[in-house]
Amino acid sequence: MNSITDTIRQLGIVPVIKIDDPEQAVPLAKALEAGGLPLAEVTFRTSAAAQAIRNITAGCPEILVGAGTVTTTDQVDAAMDAGAAFLVSPGFNPRIVRYCIEKNIPIFPGTCTPGEMEQAMELGLETVKFFPAEAAGGTAFLKAVGGPYPQLRFIPTGGINPENIAAYLKIKSVVACGGSWMVPADRIAAKDFETITRLTAGAVALVRRCREEGGTK
Fold first, then answer.
1. Considering 18, 41, 213, 217, which one is annotated as catalytic?
2. Secondary structure of residue 90 in the 3-state scheme
3. Which of 20, 44, 65, 214 is most buried, by the most CB atoms less than 10 A from its CB?
4. Cα separation of 207 and 162, whole Å?
5. How many domains does the chain have?
């Protein structure tokens, strides 16, 4: 888990991807890599997710690919069988988390309350997703929980965009931010991978600029 978390921390952004056609997965992954972001979270919001992950792991082994929106043990198994390196869930389901821990599968479950955060820590997790970030209180909430839970790290996701990501990255407990603005579904469907590369490069440059200005730990 630590090596995966370290890689995500170094990159600063987790592109959250909804893909309908698995044949577009490899060109999409190559567009992300060309933009400087060799990372992808393919969400189980479509039936194409498992095959998309399988295609990326086979065609772009240099990409760190994970599965998102994992809410059942069947999806856990499907994601891992497809080659996912890590899992992300929208909420905190103790049964799913324990299932992953028992199988030594890296998972970043969603949390948005102190109770869920304490449950995650009780199970030995150090890094969790904070979702839905903006709707659940945003940066003010993360700063508030940083006092009682200084050891916990977060990947805020939900409502993150180029206008507010810097505010999140300035918070010590934030590992990286999840976002989809660099991988818009309509550009994926249109096979407009040139635009995706351009948007990704802009996102990577934005994170680099924040860090050069001393915005992150």
1. 41
2. coil
3. 65
4. 9
5. 1
